[in-house]
Structure formats: structure tokens, C-alpha cells
Amino acid sequence: MTGECALPAGSALLVAVSGGPDSMALLSVLARVGPSLDLTVHAHGVDHGLRADAARELDLVEAFARSIGVPFARTRVALSAGANLQARARELRWRALTDAAASLRAAIATAHHADDRAETVLMRLLRGAGARGLGVLPPRARAPEAPSIAVVRPLVRARRADVLLHIERHAVPCAHDPSNADPRYLRTAVRRDVLPLLAKLDPNVVRHLEALADELVNAEPRGKSPEWASSLPRSTQVAIARLQTSEAADARVWLPGGLTVSTDPRARLRARDRDEGGRPRAPGARPRVVSEKPSG
């Protein structure tokens, strides 16, 4: 993949698939683009054992995965009814996915989209989260309890309507989990009532909440790791890309936490040299990150 979710050529990618529209759309997209990006795509489903239909939904996933040439596997976990059901289900699901990804030496792809992210920000606000708790669902992160495994969210900039349009256009089969409409869950209320009301006040509210999450992901610099850089706001990433070909001697881009990206004059000079065959090298300077706070 490219951009915020970029993975090295030759990587394996494990797609977390439940059978719902979001994950089936993601599987469909990655099966289409994976070969051109030199990615080996696998699909994995987790059955929590709470609904009889869950196994049939994963049968649907398996049949679809086979039809598009993607290997599929599933894990059944033992989850009893009781308090904190969703949190416990999430923990077991991640454990199953990271175990499967580790065996394949794969990154994990999840189907979270922009509306999911906006809903999660609102849920955190309603539960009293501070700034650190609002930097949710970045395009790239590390798996819970398994920091060696990358997690990417290729659909995180897409709206739910975009996902459903892909399902319709390409006749992708999918199932619908009734628990997603259960009024006992806060997410259901946020999705059905809170976010639509806010959208009436401002149709761009999802993008505003997305931008807030982007900013707060980077509220505390996480060093110079690729994950930190790839989760910068898209406008900042574009500015850094332009900086690579900038001719200005003092061009720079401000980053969170007082860091800047600036051009290295020595790199520019090397870039302007000719190679051994006499061909001019590509112009531009390689950016470097420095710890420098803005003056004033």
C-alpha cells in the first residue's frame, strides 16, 4: 500500500474480516490492489461464540475469499455473556488476530473508516476522555500487546457512504450484525442520533472530528518512527513531500511538539551532481527532522 498505510513490497497483510459491509469492502479492495503493490493478502475471521449466525457469516467470508483467491482462516474464542462484553470481545479478537498475523509475519488491516473514527471521538468525549484519549484510530499504529505487528487502516479517510457504494457497485456479499443496532450500546446512539444531529448543524462534522483525532494522535511526539510520521495530518504530509523538491534554501515545515522538517543543503548539492554515466540526478533535497521550537 501507499501513503499513510504504506507497507514494504513483499509484505504479507492479514485482513480482519467479520462479514459486515466494511470489512468485506476492505477485503475486496485489497484483493484487487494487492498484486500490483506486491502484497500477499490473507483474510481472518474471529467467532466469539455469542451468536449462532456468526459462524454462518464467516462461512460467507470464506466463500467470498476463495472466489477472489484470498486464503482464509478463522479462530473461535470462548466469550461468556456478562459485563464489559464488547471490551472483552475486543481483547480476545485482537489476541486472535495478532497470533494469526505473527504466524504469517504479517501486518493487520482493519476496516475502520472516517465515520467510525468520528463516532469514537464523540464516545470518548461523552465518557470524559482528555486530549490524549481523543487521538483515536490513526491510519497506522501498533497492535495492542504486540508492538512488533503493524496495524493499518486503509479505509480510514473514506466515508461510510463510500464503503457502501463499493459494496453495491461490485456486488460484494455481506452480512449485518444485529448487535450494531442494539440501543444498549453507546455507539448505536452516537451513530443514529448524535452524529446525524451534528451533521445537520455542520455537514463537515465528520471531517472536523477526523482532523481533531489527527492532531491529538500527535499531541505528544512519538519520536521519529515511521508510524509517527505517517499519522501526521494529510496537509502536513503533502507539505513534507513538496519540501523534497523545494528550491528554497530555508524551506521548512513545522511539526507537533516544536519539531521541524527542513532541507539539507548538502543533500541538495549531492542531488544536483551528475552520476557516473553523465546523467543528471533528480533535483531536490532530502528532508531531515530537527528539534527546534519556533521563535517568538
Number of DSSP helical runs: 10
**CATH top level assignment of the largest domain:** Alpha Beta
Architecture (CATH level 2) name of the largest domain = 3-Layer(aba) Sandwich
* Global shape: globular
| Pattern of helices and strands | EHEHEHEHEEHHHHHEEHE
Describe the main β-sheet briefly: 6 strands, mixed
Overall radius of gyration: 22 Å
CATH topology description of the largest domain: Rossmann fold
Query: What's the rounded overall pLDDT mean?
Result: 83
Strand arrangement in the largest pleated sheet: 3-2-1-4-6-5
Helix content, binned percent: 40-55%
Any low-confidence stretches, pLDDT <50, length ≥5?
A: 268-272, 274-278, 281-296
Cα(first) to Cα(last) distance is: 40 Å
Number of strands: 9
Give me the secondary-structure category.
alpha/beta
Structure description:
With 296 residues, this protein is α/β, with parallel strands linked by helices. It has 2 domains: 214 residues, Rossmann fold (3-Layer(aba) Sandwich), CATH 3.40.50.620; 58 residues, no CATH class. Helices cover 42% and strands 16% of the residues. The chain has 10 helices and 9 strands. The strands form 2 sheets. It has a 6-stranded mixed beta sheet with strand order 3-2-1-4-6-5, sandwiched between helices. A hairpin with a 2-residue loop joins strand 5 and strand 6. Helix 1 crosses helix 5, helix 4 packs across helix 6 and helix 4 crosses helix 7. The longest helix has 20 residues. The protein is globular, with a radius of gyration of 22 Å. The two termini are 40 Å apart.
